[in-house]
Design brief:
196 residues; alpha+beta; two-stranded antiparallel sheet; 7 strands
């Protein structure tokens, strides 16, 4: 009798352990993806083109500086995120925004930044210009004070997490769920100052 009462609680405990572990892993993957993409974006002239050297040494050739104002170069940055987050489920929900801004005392993050948004559809990233208003911008204090001695560059990554084991019994009006609710949005931003 007691065993029959404990089994559903044990199942809920196991399901929540799996779901919270998946969410924790997604948080780590999104954070790592945003930092890796930011590192790739600011490394500019040493960016890997995807082609190994002709002599077989496996060293990546040097390419030109990345221009994140260009959707083609923003796609290179977004591909780094896509590869870094390839083990996640629901990969089609990945969105990557790359932006650059040359700061000045009158710079406005909302209007002066050059941004591209990349989305994952069917495993391939596609990018388009614009889209600054749908993401969180860096703090305004990062864009003023030092004139044009650096370029502010940032990468936003968003991912929608769905629990591995959805448990349908919940009271959303009260905010009570047996497990994590569906469609949790995970967002991470990496902000860099690139010296000129």
């Amino acid at each position: 009798m007691e065993f029959a009462l404990v089994i559903p609680l044990l199942f809920i405990l196991i399901a929540n352990t799996v779901n919270f572990a998946g969410l924790y892993y997604a948080l780590i993957a999104v954070g790592n993806g945003s930092r890796a993409a930011g590192d790739y974006m600011i490394m500019s002239s040493v960016a890997y083109s995807g082609v190994d050297s002709a002599d077989g040494a496996g060293l990546p050739p040097l390419t030109g500086p990345l221009d994140t104002g260009s959707p083609a170069d923003a796609k290179l940055v977004a591909d780094v995120v896509g590869k870094d987050m390839s083990s996640l489920t629901n990969r089609n929900s990945i969105q990557v925004r790359t932006c650059t801004l040359t700061p000045s005392d009158d710079a406005n993050l909302s209007t002066d930044a050059v941004c591209n948004i990349c989305t994952n559809s069917g495993g391939a990233m596609s990018c388009s210009s614009g889209g600054i208003s749908s993401f969180t911008n860096p703090s305004p204090d990062t864009s003023t004070g030092e004139g044009g001695s650096y370029t502010l560059a940032w990468v936003d990554v968003t991912y929608t997490y769905d629990p591995f084991i959805p448990l349908g019994f919940s009271f959303p009006g009260l905010g009570l769920y047996l497990t994590l609710p569906s469609n949790l949005v995970v967002h991470r931003q990496a902000v860099y100052r690139v010296l000129k």
